[in-house]
Specification:
This protein is mainly alpha-helical and about 230 residues long. The protein has 9 helices and 2 strands.
């Protein structure tokens, strides 16, 4: 089914084009946000699409020599995942008594992102870490200067990061969101083994990251969200 849907994929969506081509695209630039799904509360762009498909776009952009565009789209996807995570928690809080009575403790997704054939979390993590390692091991990038490229790392002015946030911290949070996703174990031994391998690979990558105060806060935040859910 997804393969058939992929035949109809295109890049002409105006919102998508703005996301991948503009560094300062926000809700003040766009007047079609009537239902509030195109931007978050900060006015930063979101991209609502089947997550593995959206991440496949990021991978395609990187593969064809468009690292800046891939990074812009990756950040929009991650901000969307954050928003969805928060909305799911709010939904759970609003129906907590009813859900607990039914023995449900969280929103369960039928399709897991970790172990998925398109490797969405790995794609987002790799895109951000490639940039993060290129900026003094995750130091905050200078958004005022022009974009430049040295070897495999891209230094670029991007405004869509919180104060003190880095590409590396965003990568770590993405991995934790993926690992913490409540999901059904797939059918079949091979698929289950693949999920386990991908989880182990993500955990190994996280262990390679030197923790600082910002990263510890992210671990606490995601652990709290999991416990509350």
């Amino acid at each position: 089914m997804r393969a058939i849907e992929a035949c109809d994929l295109h890049w002409q969506d105006p919102h998508l084009q703005h996301i991948i081509t503009e560094d300062h695209y926000n809700n003040y630039c766009y007047h079609d946000n009537l239902d509030g799904c195109l931007f978050d509360s900060r006015g930063w762009p979101l991209w609502h699409e089947h997550v593995p498909t959206a991440c496949a776009r990021v991978d395609a952009l990187r593969s064809h020599g468009y690292p800046k565009e891939a990074l812009r789209l990756a950040i929009a996807i991650i901000n969307t995942l954050r928003r969805q995570q928060q909305k799911q928690l709010e939904l759970f809080r609003g129906h907590k008594k009813e859900l607990l009575h039914r023995g449900v403790t969280s929103v369960t997704n039928l399709e897991g992102w970790v172990g998925h054939p398109l490797d969405p979390i790995g794609t987002l993590f790799g895109t951000l870490m490639e940039t993060g390692w290129g900026s003094d091991d995750g130091a905050t990038l200078d958004f005022s200067g022009p974009c430049r490229k040295t070897e495999n790392h891209v230094y670029m002015p991007l405004p869509f990061l919180e104060e003190g946030e880095t590409f590396m911290s965003l990568a770590v949070e993405t991995a934790l969101i993926g690992l913490g996703q409540q999901r059904v174990m797939p059918d079949g031994l091979y698929a289950q083994e693949k999920v386990c391998r991908n989880e182990e690979q993500l955990l190994a990558k996280l262990q390679e990251v030197d923790l600082d105060e910002m990263l510890v806060k992210i671990f606490r935040k995601q652990a709290t969200l999991l416990l509350e859910g």
